[in-house]
Design goal:
This protein has 161 residues and is an all-alpha fold. The chain has one domain. It is built from 6 helices and no strands. Helix 1 crosses helix 6 and helix 5 packs antiparallel against helix 6. The longest helix is centred in the first third of the chain and has 26 residues. It is globular, with a radius of gyration of 18 Å. The termini are close together.
Length: 161
């Protein structure tokens, strides 16, 4: 039987705050795309540079692939955000968020000499906000809180919390 580690009140509170804050970021990004019927990932995909840019450009050139990517992006962001905020399926939400952020990072790597259409908020080399948020989700995956403070607690037997 796998048992959850005992957290101090401060540790648990900060982990839940981190989970909700990242969830809010994902949910907000998803909903802004849901309510913008003209939104498409094409511009972002075409702006890709670096090692994997060919793959992202090929996706942008295929209308069917763009439709799939747009759907997965919009509803993935929204579902991940809801899962993290509500503390429901948090392990699944964190893994999905890590995968999505990894694609964002690989499409727009923060390397010297690469300039993107969207203005950056600073000058980065290797480490940017996307990678930091990815690492924070990894922490949340390793220290799950949804079973303790979240809707998961209503679906998980007490001895598994």
């Amino acid at each position: 039987m796998k048992t959850q580690p005992a957290y101090t009140g401060s540790q648990l509170s900060l982990l839940v705050i981190l989970r909700i804050a990242i969830g809010w970021h994902f949910l907000y990004e998803g909903l802004t795309k849901v309510f913008n019927p003209g939104w498409s990932s094409v511009g972002y995909l075409l702006d890709s540079q670096g090692l994997f840019s060919g793959m992202f450009h090929a996706i942008a050139a295929n209308p069917n692939a763009v439709a799939v990517v747009d759907f997965l992006n919009v509803w993935g962001l929204t579902a991940i955000g809801l899962g993290l905020i509500l503390g429901l399926l948090t392990q699944t939400a964190t893994i999905a968020g890590i995968v999505l952020l990894a694609f964002y990072y690989l499409s727009h790597p923060p390397l010297i000499g690469l300039n993107y259409a969207a203005p950056g908020e600073g000058n980065y080399f290797l480490i940017n906000k996307t990678l930091i948020e990815l690492i924070a989700l990894w922490v949340l995956y390793l220290f799950p809180t949804g079973r303790l403070i979240g809707l998961e607690r209503f679906f998980v037997k007490p001895e598994k919390r």
